Amino acid sequence: MAEVRGCELPDDLLYDVTNNIWYRENDDDTVTVGMTAIAGAMAGQIVAITPKRAGRKVMPGRSCATVESGKWVGPAKLLSGGEVVEVNKDIVATPGLANSDPYAGGWLLKVRVADWGSVKAQLTAGTEVSAPYEMKMEADGFEGCNS
Fold first, then answer.
1. Is residue 87 part of a domain?
2. What is the pLDDT of residues 71-125, one digit of tens each?
3. I want to staple 6 with a disulfide (CB 3.0 to 4.6 A). Which of 59, 72, 139, 146 is the partner?
4. Distance separating alpha carbons of residues 124 and 91, to the nearest angstrom
5. Residue 133 falls inside a structural domain
6. pLDDT at 147 (0 to 100)
7. pTM, full prediction
8. What's 17's domain CATH number?
9. CB neighbours of 21 closer than 8 A, spacing ≥ 6?
């Protein structure tokens, strides 16, 4: 597992570093998506998550959920776009899972992506994500997850 400035980034995921979103490929032609530990640390304690409903389409680069913390309200943007096939009801009921368990219980949605191959080519593998995240954190002035 990669760790950058105290932020964990599992090797088995794919990352959209720009939007702080992770992707996990599933066996049923869907991907599970969630926010990285970095997103949670930057936002602070998350108090509400309002995802798009199952059956809705998300356009590439657009919001799949609205995330609210004590200091920030904003979109969780998907590089991929696609059709929402499942919403994590646990994250809606307990939004703090995005902070405490971002890579397991804190996932946001499962999405069916029309052209997953081309999207996947734009993502960064977990085994290669340390340097891009170090550069992004430096550019953003973000000291890390333990700050």
1. yes
2. 889 999 999 889 999 999 999 999 999 999 999 999 999 999 988 999 999 999 9
3. 146
4. 25
5. yes
6. 64
7. 0.95
8. 2.40.50.100
9. 15, 33, 34, 35, 36, 39, 76, 77, 78, 79
Q: Show the domain range for 61.
A: 2-140
User: How does strand 109-112 pair with strand 82-87?
Assistant: antiparallel
- The answer to the question of residue 145 being in a domain is no
Average model confidence (pLDDT) across the chain: 94
The pLDDT of 141-145, averaged and rounded, is: 92
Q: Are 34 and 98 in contact (CB under 8 A)?
A: yes
Handedness of CA 92, 19, 102, 59 (dihedral sign): positive
The domain total for the chain is: 1
Is 147 inside a domain boundary? no
Q: List, as one string, the DSSP characters of the chain.
A: -EEETTEEE-TTSEEETTTTEEEEE-TTS-EEEEE-HHHHHHH-SEEEEEEPPTT-EE-TTEEEEEEEESS-EEEEEESS-EEEEEE-HHHHH-TTHHHH-TTTTT--EEEE-TTHHHHHTTSEEGGG-HHHHHHHHHHHT---TT-
